[in-house]
Amino acid sequence: MTAATDQVRHGPGGALAPFGYPVFRAIWGANLFSSVGSVMQAVAAAWLMTELTSRHLLVALVQASSTIPILVLGIFAGAIADAYDRRLVMLWAQAFMLFVSAVLAVMGYAGAITPWSLLLLTLMVGMGTALNGPAWQASVRLQVDRPDLPQAISLNAIAFNLARSLGPALGGLVISLWSVNMAFALNALSYLAMIVVLARWRPDMPVPVRLPMGEAILDGMRYCFGSGPVFRVLLRGLVFGFGAAGFQALLPVVVRLQLRGDQVSYGLVVGAFGLGSVLSALFVSRLRRRFGSEDVVGVSTVVYLGAQVMLSSTQALGPAMIAALVAGSGWVAVMTSLNVAIQLRSPEAILARCLSIYQAVAFGGMALGAWVWGALADHVGLVASLRLAAAWLALTLILRLIAPMPSREEGRIEDGEKAHEPA
Question: What's this model's pTM, rounded to 2 decimal places?
Fold first, then answer.
């Protein structure tokens, strides 16, 4: 059964057209539920770290714990997703994250968490995310038809950023009424919905070609770094991720020290970031069609760096929430534009590897940025570190001249096109 025969059409390419596919609806809903739990856990872990240590770098590394494994393991995860049933890869990853989150909750209730054990366990959850990511993103093509693929990617971004809106507020509420340990336990339960949906899904997909791991990885890298359009997208993801990391990695410290806020204040600011992301995701596909990816990425980068400067200057909750709202809108506009550019220019046979390389580059840049801006905050202060991150993003605007985003049809892979043969 193809995706087309499994859905009710409401106009291909429409904003909500992917919801006409039952399998997309089910996975989208389960992913939203799971993402809310993950954000709740991230909020709880970041807040707990501010209680366990005064070192800004360790707080920033908690924020980077979901991206560091993508840098280290993402390319291997892409090769695994191309070589095996992507549904089963996602099932194993979800089960692993459930187990680690349950261990985190048990250790929390036992009072056995230290700064380093907290960092280790959040890194292990990040390992599950790294394994799950390429298989999940590559499976979107199995859920919708090609005309609806860009909007399906945007709707997945909406699910993630709805979670960023709801999760922090719920996380702050759970922490206030109960404890960070309850947030960890609820996250462990949140993986069950996705596990059930994936266990019931039986997609039709081509039999994967299995190559030795090293050969498979090199094959994907040769394509990605040998394709001019794809390479430029990778470069843009790297430099944006590095500069953008400052806002998110230092936000818990800004709320606690600069705003003198509590966990509820932190939840509200992160929730505002998520709300901005949701609002942007609803319109970003239309903006790309009208103005092109380069203009969307460039303007959104300016919006994001402006929000970083605003956050560095504020001493009150209201302006911080406005800065987060603006930053969220710029964030999702850039990241979904880069993701769509990669998806439309990657052959099916190596799609997961291309996506994993993109994730490794972009989120690796974020992990490196979180470390750099966190270390700078320890030495030169929060305000200077945030403004230096904004200055970096301003410098990246020159890339529109030397490494522009691909034009609408440049490097695009069409259905049925035999665009790649394994080396």
Answer: 0.70
